[in-house]
Amino acid sequence: MNLAIDIGNTLIKVGLFQQDEIAEVIRFDNEAQLLQLIKEKKPSNIIISTVRNNSEQILPHIPAETNAILLSNKTPLPVSNGYNTPETLGTDRISSIVGAFSLFPNTNCLVIDIGTCIKCDIIDLNNTYLGGSISPGIKMRFQSLSHYTSKLPLVEFEKTDFLNGKSTKESILSGVINGAVFEIEGFIGAYSKIFSQLNVIITGGDSYCFESRIKPHIFVVPDLVLLGLHKILLHNLSITSA
Q1: Region 149-162: what's the mean pLDDT?
Q2: Active-site residue identified among 6, 92, 113, 124
Q3: Does domain 77-242 have CATH number 3.30.420.40?
């Protein structure tokens, strides 16, 4: 058994892989729960992507018999990385791109990750990652409206399909949700003019809220980062065994 571990800003997601297939996905709130799972499952191989500065809380506690990879800009990848500053590239972003590559190799793919931030990333048909964009996520947009104004309330996310808000709450909901939809559709439209036969893949914790709102044809893959992490793990295992 292999484990692919995605430590995000909010949650820890773990994919349990048997052979090349993802058998189960488990979510945790903290590192202690993760380490308990590793102790119970005794995986042969682990790969970790983290956006937190917490590797020292995890790596020393992984059993010595388990092969563990902490994903970084030094880790060999099955795709080419055309990012100008790879040392600043989030490992979640490159993992999602490799996930797209694993599903649609040798094609143009746009990955849109809707989570703490909204991230767009592009990989071309030569399997080269070309970069993308980062903007505030849905929760961050609600919080900033309340934080940086004196009278606007903090509004919680609600699914909505109206355009014209008839109260302050509805106006904020319309602005945040529709604004995100228009932004995402705008990126899809712009990239589609540059890259022919573009596959668009939506992922991330808030992706389920938008899959029915985004008009262009899309693929929704909630566990794209985990799929990418496992692909990177297998790639590195193949190098060491060669």
Answers
A1: 92
A2: 92
A3: yes
- The whole-number pLDDT of residue 242 equals 64
- Tokens, residue 196: 């022919």
What distance in Å separates the CA atoms of residue 177 and residue 162, rounded to the nearest whole number?
A: 10
User: Looking at domain 1-70, which CATH architecture does it have?
Assistant: 2-Layer Sandwich (3.30)
Amino acid at the residue 167: S
CB 63 within 8 A of CB 217: no
Strand order across the 109-114 sheet: 80-81, 128-136, 117-123, 109-114, 199-203, 219-220
Quick: pLDDT tens for 61-83: 888 889 999 999 999 999 999 99
Tallying the residues shown for the chain, one arrives at 242
In three-state secondary structure terms, 19 is coil
20 is catalytic: no
Q: What is the mean pLDDT of the chain?
A: 92
